Amino acid sequence: NRGGYKVFSIEVENCLMAHPQVQEAATVGVPCPVLGERVHAFVGLKPGYAATEVLQAELKAHCKAVLSDYKVPESYTVQTTALPRNANGKLLKREMRDQVAHLSPVLDKRA
Q: Is residue 24 part of a domain?
């Protein structure tokens, strides 16, 4: 829930997965004192691609072109390694959420 609007992870993740360099994607909510939560995206890249600031800007522009503004991730963790999963292959979103929980004060500026 972001500022009273529902953000469904699957919609944002599908948008990110449509980018040609993205292998896998997951989104989590980061606590925000103003909006309730802000969207943070974890992105695993396809082999041969590098995590750069240019790519992060490209991912944000890609999402802005497809999604409503309130659904666009405000921050990204882009990596060349696989996203964390349990033994059954399920994404460990709780672990990912814990990794970025400290970002909430930093994200108080409006994007």
A: yes
CA distances to 84, 91, 93 from 88, in Å: 11, 9, 14
Task: State the pairing for strand pair 75-79/36-45.
Answer: parallel
Rounded average pLDDT over 3-20: 95
Q: Give the CATH number of the domain where residue 50 resides.
A: 3.30.300.30
The DSSP line for 19-52 is STTEEEEEEEEEEETTTEEEEEEEEEEPTT----
Q: From CA 99, how far away is CA 101, in angstroms rounded?
A: 6
**Rounded percentage of the chain residues whose pLDDT exceeds 90:** 77
The backbone torsions φ and ψ at residue 81, rounded to the nearest 5 degrees and listed phi first, read -100, 165
Residue 16 lies in a domain: yes
